[in-house]
Design brief:
Elements: E1 2-5, E2 22-25, H1 36-52, H2 58-65, E3 79-83, E4 112-119, E5 122-129, H3 136-155, H4 169-177, H5 193-196, H6 200-210, E6 215-218, E7 223-225, H7 226-244, E8 250-254, H8 259-270, E9 274-278, H9 284-293, E10 296-301, H10 306-313, E11 318-321
Helix pairs in contact: 7-8
Amino acid sequence: MGSPIANRNHHATESLIGFFVNTLVIRTDLSGSPTFRQLLGRVREVALEAYAHQDLPFEKLVEELQPERDLSRTPFFQVFFNMLGPDDGEFSLTGLSAERIATGDADSKFDLTTYVSEKDEKLKLTLSYNADLFESDTISNLLGHYCNLLEGIVENPDRQISRYSLLTQNQRRDFTNQSRPIAPNHRFVQFRKPDIQQSLCSRFEQQARLFPTKLALTTQEHQWSYAELNRQANRIAHTLLKHCGQRGQRIALLFDHGAPMVAAILGVLKSNNAYVPLDPFHPQERLAYISGNCRTAVIVSDRNNLAQALALGNRTVTVIDVDDIDGATPTDNPALAVSPDALAYILYTSGSTGQPKG
């Protein structure tokens, strides 16, 4: 957690005007389930070590350790603990009167910020929180749990911290008596080994049988159920089997991003071949190199990219236009066993340091 420290430890800074505050990072070791007294000793030791190095700016710590940065949270800690000085009562100056005015809730700079103030030999605890992460009821419960924890510590400070309860006896009884099913309407389904150890296309066909009318794919131009996507993929698979003959070949796919591309991917896998995606917006030289390097047997494309596909095939590679597949082509699943170990695809690097590599 983070904690502020504000002191002027050097004589040269005593006469300077400004706000001298630094942030310390406090890491607490909870290993071994220590008792509260043991944990208190650990915290004291870590805190004293942090105070001894309080002049090291927090920004310098971040610069030296270079943690992975995330704009959604602060580095090293997301919980801030601020022990305020004692409230000395009314503030007054000669010829001037003053009164305290509440300014309302301040925005939380961290996920959670705990303010502890002392007055009349009592401690007041205030919790400021990020409303995007927590609801007010959650914070109220958190404060209640904290009070329960403190009461347990006062009752027996030599108990292991793992044995303290966050709930009162009444709360524990309520939780015990309540029936709290988890996702009762969606029973957990265990995957058997035969379900897991199968090819991707076999797994998809299984889902298509279970949920034929469920929406599987939606784009600006297409909206296909599982059954329709499976039929489209089967038409492509049967066409490939007719032209390819042997299995385990590389099939280039030249499509814009869309539903036909997904159907083509499944169709290639169903035909027991491997697909090689080609981006029609890439230079023709790059596409020609990839097609030759992976020894493309067939290029599958659609009407929008057919001209580019024909130029790429250069009359030596078969080109299949999915928009021109014979209507009599079967739409049932190919009677073909595809091993889970079969090659699925080849992707090529950007080639920024040389030729693209598959």
